[in-house]
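Case study.
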Amino acid sequence: MTLAILEYHWVAYLRVWRSSVVSSFVLPLLTMLGFGVGVGAYVTGGVEGVPYLDWMVPGLIASTAVQVAIGDATWPVFGSFDWNKRYFAQAAAPPRVRDILDGNLLFVVVRVLMSAGAFLAIAAAFGTLHSWLALTTLPVAALAGLAVATPSFAYAAAVSSESYLSILFRVGMIPMTLFSGVFFPVESLPAALEWIAYAFPLWHAVDLSRAATLGVAPAWPALAHVLYLVLWAAGGRWLALRQFTRRLVV
Amino acid sequence: MVSLVLPRLLAPGGPARRSATMIERNVATLRGAYWIVVASGLLEPVLYLLSIGVGVGALIGDLTLADGRVVRYAEFVAPAMLASSAMTGALAETTFNFFGKMKYQKLYDGILATPVRPIEIALGELVWAMLRGTIYAAAFLALMIAMDLTTPARALAALAATVLVGFTFGALGMALSTFMKSWQDFDLISSVQFALFLFSGTFVPATAYPAVLQWVVEVTPLYRAVHLIRALTLGGVTWTNVIDVLYLLVLLALGLVAAGRRMGKLLLS
Amino acid sequence: MALIRARGLVKRFGDFTAVDGIDVEVRAGEAFGFLGPNGAGKSSTMRMIGCVSPPSDGELSILGLDPRRDGPAIRARLGVCPQLDNLDAELSVRENLTTYARFFGIPRKVARRRADELLDFVQLSERADAKVEPLSGGMKRRLTIARALVNEPEIVLLDEPTTGLDPQARHLVWERLFRLKQQGVTLVLTTHYMDEAEQLCDRLVVMDGGRIVAEGSPRALIERYSTREVVELRFAAESQEPFAAKLTGVGERVEVLPDRVLVYAADGDEAVAEVQRRALAPAGVLVRRSSLEDVFLHLTGRTLVD
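After joint prediction, the assembly is written out as follows.
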């Protein structure tokens, strides 16, 4: 049943994939060129012993994964309840609420993997990958995607107006992207802010991805990163299922 | 204040009260959300400044400008953030909102039944949007002064320039929105906008680009805006900044004329 | 055998009771209707039958199964056409059917064949590859009905199937639903149009304020709660009220509405003749056959469509 829901989202996606290529692929690529290459030229000493571009690319892969995931977990989810009522149509058929939720989450994972995969290929073409372990950025991207998508699903299912979705972007996603060690090491932040960065799921994905592409040890034990992300994903899924049930079974 | 007091005065008993509280709740949530959106719009460029200007700035250190002056990276990047957010705000207000109101809310059709002309409505909207944008810009400049990235006198000049930048992009956005057919077109606009944001000498001097790219970049409106505002906040205004102002003014006029013509055609046909 | 059986079925939302203890039995092959004004509890009842809304109290059994426990299994054998079309505007007409079929575990090939048959059935074959958005209201409704049939359901639930459609589109929908009925599909529908109920339903219940106020075939209900004919009299005056008193004894019963007076009589022409004998001189006179509207008016003292 979950797979039937996934298939449904995939068929719908094939109709509109062109416009999503821009947001999930072209924009991050431009960031890599404009920022990674441009600013990188001025970071003369490199960062942590590697060129700035190489240092930043894994962060960009992780943050793109998270952005794609939150993007897919906000307006589309809100719209499936309030505009096209997709979820209600699905709930009238055999799928259970958890099938509807999980199928949609799976689709988000597919989307995350697609953009992370494409990005990884380009990163390889630019010669920024230092280790075959770089391939593990893909499962990391999937896990990070789930860690942020699940609470966002719950949020999008709970809010009463779409203005709240912009708020999530501005208050949640943008600060997270800016202060999770994607563009500069979090250690250079004031201590209090540093701990906020550690609280963001994105930082854990960035640190894991960076360790993978550079072939070095992560700042925290890899298992701790993974567990923290799983905790977000599991907690978010619990909240999302509760909220979906509230909306679909009344 | 009125919004706080009013619901209390209108609170009869029974079912009427229930539906009244429902409405009250919806109004309250919407109003709350709207203000958070407005307030967070204020926060966004600040966060960018702290992340890129301060965080990345620590990696870059000082930057040598074309005229040989050495400045901190935050000093260099802050005016570009200001110009970019003036652009983003003006475009969001004019393209997205204007398109929605014109196409879906049919708001203008009602007003047009009166003697008001389309461009007058659009100008009214633009001025309102710019008022908000000016408050954002002033707050950002205040922060720049606090962080010692500019002086109060320079900030005042930069504020005027930011208003000009906002109006120019607002006029461009209005003209563009008359060509929009569907929401998909906005993906294109926001991509172009993002590319401008990245490549308009925002994060690194345009001289860092290959010569061809540098020429392309230098004729884009955001580059001119960044160039102008940066000269004002850092000091060192030259005759090239007069070109910036003229360029923006011409674009503003062109945008208004195009928007006025197209709107008349779209709404009155 | 009863496909749907409800005993003392209740649905509460907080302290509001939408459905207040109803007993219903729907038999295989019949077209069963819930007639009532907006807010009567019809849609809540339908949602409970559709297993997307757990009953607050009472018994409900659908196809011999318990919706609290066997929701997915029951939904697999139901077709649902909701009041507001929830088609996917991003998909083509055919994809709306094929993707929905997959929710029922129908293999892709079968889904495609069935989609084509159903599009033929609802007369949308020419639009199979078109987008959903530009379709007319009637076409969208027919497509939603086709989607409800994609799993070859034993029961089809239709919530206000023709609300919001123009007369021509309504007749087309009725005609298709009638064909379904002939094929032996059990139809359960809600409506607040008495002509729809009379056209489609073998049996119906009249609901008001969450309760069932009458039950039977349209014919039987009219016979029991109304007369054969009705005379509608319009008087050119501010209030129709004073004329009602002068009509006592004409026909069997008199109802006063804001804009007209209804005289219930076995023989309408005879009643009109009596009105003329009393020299009441109404501005307008119309003799018609009794309808379910009259039944509802008699049962609740209110009209169905305000």
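Observations recorded in class. The domain at 227-289 of chain C is CATH 3.30.70 (Alpha-Beta Plaits). The mean pLDDT of chain C is 92. We will return to this complex in the next lecture.
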